[in-house]
Amino acid sequence: MQKTIRAFIAIHLPREVKTYLGHLAEDLAGQLPNRAVRWVKPDRMHLTLRYIGETEKNLVPELGHALDQTAAKHQQFTLHLEGFGCFPNKKQPRVLWAGIGGDVEAAGRLKKDIDSALVTLGWEAEKRPFQQHLTVGRVKDSRKVASQRWPDDVQPLVIPVDSIHLIESELTPDGPI
C-alpha cells in the first residue's frame, strides 16, 4: 500500500471560469500546430497556492487541521481573471497562463500564512515568489509556436475565494489527475 500522496494546496475555480479558459485553449489550439501545446483540461484547472509534493498519508489529518485553522483567520475575498501571458516570456513560451487580479493582497496574505503553517509542520519555506496565475497550457516545443500572437487579456470573470483545498495529484501518462 502506498504510504505517500503527491499533494498541493489550491483554490477551486467556478465552473464559468473553467469553461471560459477551456474555450480559450480550444481557440488557441486551432491556431497552432497539432500537439504543440499540452492543454490543461478545464476540470483540472485551479489556482495553486502551494505545491507540497510527496506527503506521508499519516500527516494528512494534521495538515488538514493546520490548513483549516489558517483559512479560519481569513475572510472571504474576490479575485478575477486579468491578463494573459507566458513563462518565461511570449517569445520563448514554456507555460501559457491567465493572470489573476482583484484582491491579490488578500491572496498573498493567505499564501504567506499557509507557508508559515507548513514550516511549523516541517516543510521547507518556499523560496520562489508567489506568482498568481492559472496554467492554461504547457508548450512542448517553443519553436513550433514562436510566431504565435498571444492574447493580451481575458474576460475578467470573478473567482470568489471562501475556502482552500488540500488536493491529491496522481501522475498518469495522460497527465495529472
Keywords:
single chain; 177 residues; alpha+beta; five-stranded antiparallel β-sheet; three-stranded antiparallel β-sheet; 3 helices; 25% helix
Description:
- This protein has 177 residues and is α+β, with helices and mostly antiparallel strands.
- It has three helices and ten strands.
- β4 (77-87) and β5 (95-102) form a beta hairpin.
- The chain is globular and about 50 Å long.
- It starts with a strand and ends with a strand.
- The model has no long low-confidence stretch (mean pLDDT 94).
Span between N and C termini?
19 Å
Spatially, the strands of the biggest sheet line up as 2-6-5-4-7
Query: Could you say which overall geometry the principal axes of the C-alpha atoms support?
Result: globular
Which percent range describes the beta-strand content? 25-35%
Number of helices: 3
Q: How many DSSP-defined strands?
A: 10
* Structural class by SSE content: alpha+beta
Helix content: 25-40%
Uncertain spans:
none
Mean pLDDT: 94
Q: What is the H/E order?
A: EHEEHEEHEEEEE
The biggest beta sheet reads: 5 strands, antiparallel
Radius of gyration: 17 Å
Topology:
Blueprint: E1 4-12, H1 15-29, E2 37-39, E3 46-56, H2 60-72, E4 77-87, E5 95-102, H3 104-120, E6 133-139, E7 158-161, E8 165-168, E9 171-172, E10 175-176
Antiparallel strand pairs: 1-3, 1-8, 2-6, 4-5, 4-7, 5-6, 9-10
At a glance:
The protein is α+β, with helices and mostly antiparallel strands and 177 residues long.
